[in-house]
Structures are given as C-alpha cells and as structure tokens.
Amino acid sequence: MTLTLSGQPLAIADLLSVARDRAKVRVETEAHQRMTASRAVVDAALSDGLAHYGINTGFGSLSRQRIAPGDLRTLQRNLIRSHAAGVGDPLPNEVVRAMMLLLAASLCRGNSGVRPVLAETVVALLNAGITPIVPETGSVGASGDLAPLSHVALALIGEGEVMHEGRRI
Q1: Which of 146, 147, 113, 121 is nearest to 43 (CA)?
Q2: Could you report the per-residue pLDDT of 16-57, keeping only the tens digit for each?
Q3: Is the CB of residue 152 less than 8 Å from the CB of residue 82?
Q4: CA-to-CA distance for 43 and 101, rounded, in angstroms?
Q5: pTM across the whole model
Q6: Which of 21, 24, 53, 136 is catalytic?
Q7: CB-based contacts of 147, cutoff 8 Å, min separation 6
Q8: Is position 94 annotated as part of the catalytic site?
C-alpha cells in the first residue's frame, strides 16, 4: 500500500499504516503544485526589499533586525540547532514516524511557504525507514512542538541522530 498525501486530512488507519506498518508514502502532484505556488509568495517577499518577520528578520525581540540575504541560510540552520533542545529518552519510532507523516501531510496543504523538497525529503526518510531520534522532554515556544520538530529537522539537514535498520547513527 502507498499512502498519497494530497493535502486532505489523514484517517487514523492511514497514520497507523505508515507509523507502525511502514507503508510507503508519496506526495500528490497537485500538492506539489500548491507548495510551489505558496513558495513563490515567499520568494516574492524576499525580493521586494521590505522586512518580513521570520523570513528576512530576526525573531521575537530581534524582529526589527534585518538579516542580510547571504546570512539567511545560516540563520535558518542555527534556528534549527538552537531549538533542538530536547532531553531524555527517545520517543518510540512509531511516534516519531507519525509526527513526520503529520508534518508532511500538513506541508502538502500548500499554506506554509516551504519548498516542495521539504515534504519530499520527509517522505523519503519515512520510505527509507530512517527515523530521527527525538527526545521525550522539552520544547520551545507556546505550541510545544518546536523542539521535537527541530530534532526531526536536524536529520533533514544531515545532523542529529537517527535510527536505521535497528541502529542508532
């Protein structure tokens, strides 16, 4: 079975098939197109010369600080690193896989302004059986998901630790 992410809500059975049974996942073409269109809005904002919170400015109390175009990639990488602040035992693989699937499904709605490669890379990790190590305790921010998602993001940028074929690497 292959689950197709279309931007529509997932059924619990779909979530479990990927999280527990390792069903394969793919991104629907229309979802890819929605993400591309949404990303075009971000790209236009980057080229209009204005300040856009969190896109070309700092965050929180540094929101009035403009970030030079050449430093944006470093800012994003360091933001991931700084938020990956969890501690404790790793969450079970199936919990992390469920979190990853929900993330990819959410991105496929096309409202986040991310490049489609982000959703595709999350799906590629799921399909390859690569599961980021996400500590069970700790978060940053009001939503409570920034630290766990940052641990997933570490794996997406080639950092952090993952489980693959029963080995922690």
Answers
A1: 113
A2: 999 999 999 999 999 999 999 999 999 999 899 899 998 899
A3: no
A4: 26
A5: 0.93
A6: 53
A7: 83, 84, 85, 86, 135, 138, 139, 140
A8: no
